[in-house]
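Per your request, structure below.
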């Protein structure tokens, strides 16, 4: 039986290209998503073997989507597509449960190999990604704790994308007061008290791209 794949990327042409590539390799694409929230819903509904997630997606980025996908569909192994080779991104990916870290600068065969490797229970890293960083993580090197909860990171991304409190509430299915409370707690935890500062923080953390 072919491996079942979920593709999540907000660029339709890129996503269609990946789908064609994977299907030519005998893999089955069982779902597609254009943002992180949709990726979570698709993973919950179809329980794919692998979720291929672009790091930079609207509403919820690939890292935070991976955290939730691992929770709602434990059998699904997330693979992250990114341009970033910097150690903090790799470490954060490992903490999020990412099993494959694939650079967009690599040939398409790299993604196929990553899918095959993670389906065998291994961790796959593109050439150019520091294996020492992952070995340090596996060796239980302590990472500084994230001050924000998963829901607060989700709210932070929406705020950094320019969503109003009302829009944030609607997208998350909560009341305006709840959304406002999340925003207030985020500012208090980070000691950042203006939107521009939240945007800068979100960029530094890789939650959004500049």
């Amino acid at each position: 039986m072919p491996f079942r794949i979920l593709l999540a990327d907000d660029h339709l042409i890129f996503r269609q290209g990946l789908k064609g590539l994977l299907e030519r390799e005998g893999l089955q694409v069982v779902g597609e998503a254009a943002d992180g929230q949709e990726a979570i819903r698709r993973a919950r509904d179809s329980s794919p073997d692998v979720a291929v997630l672009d790091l930079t997606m609207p509403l919820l980025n690939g890292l935070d989507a991976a955290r939730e996908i691992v929770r709602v569909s434990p059998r699904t192994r997330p693979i992250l597509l990114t341009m970033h080779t910097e150690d903090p991104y790799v470490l954060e990916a490992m903490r999020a449960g990412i099993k494959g870290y694939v650079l967009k600068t690599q040939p398409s065969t790299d993604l196929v190999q990553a899918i095959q490797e993670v389906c065998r229970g291994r961790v796959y890293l593109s050439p150019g990604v520091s294996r020492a960083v992952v070995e340090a993580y596996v060796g239980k090197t302590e990472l500084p704790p994230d001050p924000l909860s998963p829901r607060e990171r989700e709210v932070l991304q929406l705020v950094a994308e320019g969503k109003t409190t009302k829009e944030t509430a609607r997208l998350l299915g909560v009341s305006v007061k709840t959304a406002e409370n999340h925003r207030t707690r985020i500012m208090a935890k980070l000691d950042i008290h203006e939107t521009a500062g939240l945007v800068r923080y979100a960029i530094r953390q890789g939650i959004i791209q500049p």
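The chain has ten helices and six strands.

Regards,
D.
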